[in-house]
Amino acid sequence: MLAKAVILAAIAAIAEARFGQEGAVQASIQTLNTFGQPGQAAALAGQTPGVLLAGANACAKLALADQIVAALGNDPAVIAAAAQLVGAEKNFNPSAQSIPTLCSDVTLPATAALRGIVPLVDPAVLGSDVENANAAASLQTPFGATGLSVADVAKAQGFSNFTAQANA
Ligand SMILES: *[C@@H]1O[C@H](CO)[C@@H](O)[C@H](O)[C@H]1NC(C)=O
């Protein structure tokens, strides 16, 4: 009983730590409050948790990242925060799905500086080691993405254990 409780607590702590990144992305965008119109960064930051929900369309966070740059400008701080959103892991419900969804829309994100970034995926997914290393690398140096969707780029870089999802 005790052992089980300890394991469950440990699992909960790990899950919380990983899903904490959603809060981290929101916080980064929130700090862009000197850009755009007053309140705009906060409003955009408030939209980030919704696009990272397990049930959200995989393309929605890319469109939001474009919106962030469109509204707040292309200062390196804005680009960095928007890039963090593009590269963030979308929540994942392992009891409802076994593999993540990645956006197959070649037009997203439209912002050139945000292209070629691939997202983190749940570490329980086979192949996530490759994808998560690629995700980290792509934030430093984006992969070539001319004519490619995020799903295409991930596949080209060696990760294919996902469901491609068109923009809804
Ligand atoms: C994809 O990941 C799932 C979950 O880890 C695993 O069961 C499955 O075997 C993987 N499929 C491929 C083709 O690697």
Automatic annotation (TrEMBL):
This is Cell wall protein. The lineage of its organism: Eukaryota, Fungi, Dikarya, Ascomycota, Pezizomycotina. The keyword Signal applies. Residues 1-17 form the signal peptide. Keywords: Signal.
